[in-house]
Design brief:
Number of helices: 13
Distance between the termini: 42 Å
Strand content: under 5%
Number of strands: 0
Shape: globular
Helix content: over 70%
Structural class: mainly alpha
Radius of gyration: 18 Å
């Protein structure tokens, strides 16, 4: 299968993955959460956001013979670092969001990280440092750039509903809804040469699905921590959504 055709097929698989319609995302978008739940989400999700750029950095160090891929990844990393403005890096934007919720550094550093988020971080560290760069490409390309805009749009809806935050406070989420469309284009162009044969397609897909499965586990942990109850089964979620 030709590379562009394969990537379109992979995109359909990614968009239909259960991680994108996880019960946490659907409930958070529709109901928000109580004050304790919003603070729990904000603090725990920061543990993910503050290290996510390091996966790209690891992947760059792993593709020493492909300068074109290095440039593509570096252009995205440049955006993640706020164009080298310390006040505009993505962790800095997220801390702006935390402060808008009245959460200070002592509080956002205090609780232990959820094991599901620790697992997500560990999976992505392994994928992006794997000797086969195609695994990391799957994780940081199809599994990250395509899903993030719809996921962050749902998080924005829930945070507006639950906390009444304005766009300035939610910039970390809003920026990803638009910015990652361009990032997806960059990543797909960079990934295309690596899915030119069946083995490449298999390895990129493997990295993609391992990343998405880890995201689903992370969202399981957030659901239990934010709503303080078990994650509903898929059928139960669908019935709840229909009312």
């Amino acid at each position: 299968m030709e590379a562009r055709e394969y990537l379109e097929r992979l995109k359909r698989e990614v968009i239909s993955h259960p991680a994108l319609t996880h019960p946490f995302l659907e409930r958070f978008r529709e109901e928000g959460a109580d004050g304790e739940g919003v603070r729990t989400f904000a603090i725990q999700y920061y543990r993910h956001v503050r290290v996510s750029r390091l996966y790209l950095a690891a992947l760059i160090s792993n593709c020493d013979r492909d300068e074109g891929l290095q440039l593509a990844l570096a252009s995205i990393l440049f955006d993640e670092y706020g164009g080298l403005n310390p006040e505009e890096t993505h962790p800095a934007l997220y801390r702006r969001f935390l402060r808008a919720l009245g959460i200070g550094e002592e509080e956002w550093e205090a609780p232990p990280t959820l094991p599901e988020i620790e697992a997500y971080i560990a999976v992505h560290n392994r994928l992006c440092r794997h000797p086969d760069v195609r695994l990391g490409l799957g994780a940081m390309g199809p599994a990250s750039e395509w899903p993030v805009p719809p996921i962050y749009a749902k998080l924005c809806d829930g945070l507006r509903r639950a906390a009444g935050l304005d766009d300035a406070a939610l910039e970390i989420f809003i920026s990803h809804v638009t910015m990652d469309v361009e990032h997806a284009r960059i990543m797909m162009e960079a990934t295309a040469p690596y899915v030119a044969d069946e083995e490449g397609q298999r390895r990129v897909r493997e990295g993609t699905l391992r990343s998405l499965d880890a995201r689903r586990v992370m969202l399981d942990g957030l659901y239990r921590a934010v709503y303080r109850e078990p994650v509903p089964l898929a059928g139960e979620s669908a019935r709840a959504a229909r009312g």
